[in-house]
Design a protein that fits this description.
This protein is α+β, with helices and mostly antiparallel strands. β4 and β5 form a beta hairpin. It is globular and about 40 Å long. This is JmjN domain-containing protein. One of its GO terms (molecular function) is histone H3K9 demethylase activity.
C-alpha cells in the first residue's frame, strides 16, 4: 500500500493532487493511505450532511488463512450519512481501544476476516468542511 503525505499546498488542491498521483501510477495498488498535514482538523459537525446519500455502500469480505486471502465486495443498499454514522458508532463497528495509530492499524488488519468493513464508496461531493483557515 502506498502512503502519501501531501503538503499543505497539495492538500488545498486535493483533487489535483490525486490526479497527479494517479498519473504516476498510484491507482495500481488499489488503495492508499493519505496522511494529512499537521494543521488538518476533522470536520466539526456532520449534521448538515445527514441526508446525503451513499448510493452504493460496499462491504469488503475477506476470507483466508496462513497468508493467503481472497477479498470480494458486496454492494449494500443505499443509505444516508446519518445511517452510516449510526452503524459506524455501533458496538460492532466502533473504533476499538488502541495504544497508538500503529496498534490501531494492526488491529484493523488482524480482524479484517471477522468484521467485514463497510465503505461509503463513490460519493459525489465531500464530507469535509467547505472552508478551513489552513486551506485559504
Amino acid at each position: 500500500m502506498e502512503v502519501f503525505r501531501p503538503s499543505m499546498e497539495e492538500f488545498r488542491e486535493f483533487y489535483e493532487y490525486l490526479a497527479y498521483r494517479e498519473s504516476k501510477g498510484a491507482q495500481g495498488a488499489g488503495l492508499a493511505k493519505v496522511i494529512p498535514h499537521k494543521e488538518w482538523k476533522p470536520r466539526q459537525c456532520y449534521d448538515d450532511i445527514d441526508n446525503l446519500l451513499i448510493p452504493a455502500p460496499i462491504q469488503q469480505m475477506v476470507t483466508g488463512q496462513s497468508g493467503l486471502f481472497t477479498q470480494y465486495n458486496i454492494q449494500k443498499k443505499v443509505m444516508t450519512v446519518k445511517e452510516f454514522r449510526q452503524m459506524a458508532d455501533s458496538g460492532k463497528y466502533c473504533t476499538p481501544r488502541y495504544l497508538d495509530y500503529k496498534d490501531l492499524e494492526h488491529t484493523y488488519w488482524k480482524n479484517l476476516t471477522f468484521v467485514a468493513p463497510i465503505y461509503g464508496a463513490d460519493i459525489n461531493g465531500s464530507i469535509c468542511d467547505e472552508v478551513h483557515s489552513y486551506l485559504q
